[in-house]
């Protein structure tokens, strides 16, 4: 048996934990630079605010319905996620963290010793009591069916108490007939359109398709999904794999026209990529730098360019990657354009302990203990407390965050005070 635990409206729920006065009121969270809606409370959904809604287009609707709008507070959300996942890890020795607000647990054999319904309700009660975040739990014989069970638990909380179990053939078929094909986990828009031409409108219809047709039109992945929906365990828990490339990109709060402005951002992005490389104990052998103008400003000249640089040696040093990224930017930067977005992507990884030296140029070995010390200090005293001299010393990220809530759990100065 698998359990899929999903936090309800996670970002919005995180904001409500420390603002209980917002319970029952419409809440939305915006993306980087306060661009578009990436999370909505149920009340905001009822008003008709769609996911991805551009904030500037819906500003009048926000005001009309007194919607509480927040900038994305990823430091807070990440910390709350870690707390929740730590609690859930005590309920099973086998766990797959699927996203910031979702995880799978393997519950094989658990039902022989106690009620899975009671176990799920206990799990839900503890997470809500300890963190304030509401969760929904779906339990079934396969991962795909547990995802479907979770959807039912979330859709009908009064009947399910936030926990739903698909533990019979009758429940499986009833659930599959209820789920639209476009809402099936792993079925994208293009596949859904193709399936509609075959009169496949529900998940149940999909399980009735011949294997040969599914393999030909939906690939082996689609065939595995079909078998999983049929109740045949096909998709297993996945181990966390090292990333094959790491990207740090941002849209700017305003247009940048000077090389120095772009260079500071590129150096910062390269440093962020280097830190992520060190966390997974990898070195990169190449990097890409790209710069874009604002495609929405048709009144301005447009210029988009990128460059891939093969590094002379593998490295995860922030100093070395910043130097290479800055050199790459010089090759593609052009005066006379207003740049709105840039980024650094590192790729072609090898393990940090498997390095082949070259005859003429190698990484600076003194950077290894230096980077380790910097990471330790930043982890202890706060993100980006120690930075390169070429970075902006005043702000970590230059983003428009006009409606940012306090970092209640990660910043000492933002801890809530209680009057007793």
Separation of the first and last Cα atoms: 46 Å
Our count of helices gives 14
**Poorly predicted residue ranges:** none
* Element string (H = helix, E = strand): EHEEHHEHEEHEHHEHHHHEHEEHEH
In percent, how much strand structure appears in the residues? 15-25%
Taken from the alpha-carbon principal axes, the silhouette is: globular
Descriptive terms for the model:
420 residues, alpha+beta, five-stranded mixed sheet, four-stranded antiparallel sheet
Brief sketch in words of this structure:
The protein has 14 helices and 12 strands. The protein has helices at residues 10-17, 42-47, 59-64, 74-88, 116-131, 143-155, 157-160, 169-178, 189-196, 203-207, 211-229, 259-279, 318-332, 367-381; strands at residues 2-7, 27-30, 37-40, 68-71, 95-99, 102-106, 135-140, 163-165, 245-256, 282-293, 304-315, 339-351.
Structure write-up:
There is one protein chain. With 420 residues, this protein is of the alpha+beta class. The chain contains 14 helices and twelve strands. It has helices at residues 10-17, 42-47, 59-64, 74-88, 116-131, 143-155, 157-160, 169-178, 189-196, 203-207, 211-229, 259-279, 318-332, 367-381, and strands at 2-7, 27-30, 37-40, 68-71, 95-99, 102-106, 135-140, 163-165, 245-256, 282-293, 304-315, 339-351. The strands form three sheets. A five-stranded mixed sheet has the order 5-6-1-7-8. A four-stranded antiparallel sheet has the order 9-12-10-11. A three-stranded mixed sheet has the order 3-2-4. Helix 4 (74-88) packs antiparallel against helix 5 and helix 12 packs antiparallel against helix 13.
């Amino acid at each position: 048996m698998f359990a899929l635990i999903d936090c309800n409206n996670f970002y919005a729920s995180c904001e409500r934990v420390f603002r209980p006065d917002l319970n029952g009121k419409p809440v939305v969270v915006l993306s980087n630079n306060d661009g578009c809606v990436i999370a909505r409370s149920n009340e905001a959904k009822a008003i008709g605010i769609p996911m991805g809604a551009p904030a500037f287009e819906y500003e009048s609707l926000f005001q009309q319905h007194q919607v509480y709008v927040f900038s994305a507070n990823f430091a807070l959300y990440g910390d709350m996620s870690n707390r929740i996942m730590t609690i859930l890890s005590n309920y099973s020795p086998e766990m797959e963290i699927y996203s910031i607000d979702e995880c799978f647990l393997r519950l094989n054999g658990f039902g022989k010793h106690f009620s899975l319904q009671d176990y799920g309700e206990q799990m839900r009660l503890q997470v809500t009591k300890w963190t304030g975040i509401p969760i929904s739990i779906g339990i079934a014989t396969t991962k795909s069916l547990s995802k479907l069970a979770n959807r039912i638990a979330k859709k009908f909380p009064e009947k399910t108490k936030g926990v739903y179990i698909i533990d019979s053939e009758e429940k499986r078929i009833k659930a599959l007939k209820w789920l639209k094909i476009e809402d099936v986990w792993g079925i994208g828009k293009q596949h859904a359109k193709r399936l509609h031409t075959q009169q496949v409108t529900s998940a149940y219809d999909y399980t009735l398709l011949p294997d040969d047709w599914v393999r030909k039109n939906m690939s082996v992945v689609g065939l595995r999904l079909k078998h999983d929906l049929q109740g045949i365990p096909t998709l297993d828990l996945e181990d966390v794999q090292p990333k094959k490339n790491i990207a740090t990109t941002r849209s700017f709060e305003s247009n940048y026209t000077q090389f120095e402005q772009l260079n500071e951002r590129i150096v910062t992005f390269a440093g962020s990529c280097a830190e992520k490389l060190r966390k997974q104990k990898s070195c990169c052998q190449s990097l890409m730098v790209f710069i874009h103008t604002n495609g929405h400003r048709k009144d301005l000249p447009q210029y988009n360019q990128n460059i891939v640089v093969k590094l002379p040696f593998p490295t995860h040093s922030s100093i070395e990657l910043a130097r290479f990224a800055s050199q790459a930017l010089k090759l593609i930067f052009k005066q006379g354009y207003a740049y709105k977005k840039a980024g650094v992507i590192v790729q072609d990884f090898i393990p940090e302990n498997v390095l082949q030296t070259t005859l003429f140029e190698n990484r600076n070995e003194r950077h290894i203990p230096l980077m380790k010390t910097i990471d330790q200090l930043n982890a202890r005293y706060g993100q980006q407390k120690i930075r390169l001299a070429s970075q902006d010393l005043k702000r970590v990220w230059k983003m428009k965050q006009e409606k940012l809530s306090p970092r209640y759990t990660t910043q000492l100065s933002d801890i809530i005070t209680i009057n007793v």
